[in-house]
Amino acid sequence: MSRPAVRVLRLGAVPYAEALRVQERCVAAARAARGPAALPGPGSGPGPGAVRGGPAALPGPPAESVVLSEPARPVYTWGLRGAPGAAAAAALRARGAALVAARRGGHITFHGPGQLLAFPVLDLRRRRLPLRAYVAGLEALVLRLCRRLGLGTARALPPPFTGVWMGDSKLCAIGVHCGNHITSHGLALNCCTDLTWFDHIVPCGLEGKGVTSLSHELGQHVAVSHVLEPFLDSFQEVFDCTLVSSEDPGD
Fold it and tell me: Main site of residence (predicted)?
């Protein structure tokens, strides 16, 4: 049985607000495409840890998407909690960063150049996938990517330490939103990010924890472009889908 198709939109280096705009178009397209049928089930021989869906196939263009981007400029964002106070916000703006409230879980964090942002727009109801299992799937795909890159000691920890870690330092932050069973937001993977931007906040609200990057851990420069293909390979394996390149989230 064929696997469900997921559109891939590679935005490149764009402002964070532009990635959000494209994401919202994808969310609207996923809601419009929703029908009574469930997504196809897993194809033959998915790898261990694949996040499996339901049994029936859907005709037509893919209803799900994943939006990939690299923030073009520094920005601090926060979710349902952890908004900075007026004085802290002014200090962050004075450093040259924008501030954006995001509709996701989690506290304040940083996004900027050298970071891979991935916003999967998946229909969890049609996949028959609980939200916690979806978050675990995001962690699993980053762990697969890390193994591909030679970071076998990367690990996921129980809540509240969501994400992927190297020791006590977070390599990848995860914060998701799920409305009417459609996911948005997702993960931020530090590739060659300037980590000093994190010094001015308590990242993700976790006192006493650090942040790290692929470049720091591997001892060499790792650009966002270097990890896109292995990231997408891991995405296909974990979410048991076929990825289809797309330029327009509404097509």
Answer: mitochondrion
Which residues belong to the annotated binding site? 104-111, 173-175, 186-188
pLDDT value at residue 202? 76
- Look up tokens 């330029």; give the residue: 247
Give the Cα separation of 159 and 49 in Å (integer).
Answer: 19
- Superfamily, domain 5-29+62-239: Bira Bifunctional Protein; Domain 2 (3.30.930.10)
**Rg (alpha carbons) of the chain, rounded to whole number:** 17
**Do 219 and 141 touch, CB atoms closer than 8 A?**
no
Among 197, 30, 204, which Cα is nearest to 104's?
204
Q: What residues does each domain of the chain span? A: 5-29+62-239
**Binding-site residue ranges for substrate:** 104-111, 173-175, 186-188
The DSSP code for 4 is: P
What are the residue numbers of the active site?
204
Give the Å distances, CA to CA, from 229 to 86, 108, 137, 234, 235. 41, 29, 18, 9, 10
Q: Which residue(s) pair with 108 in the sheet?
A: none
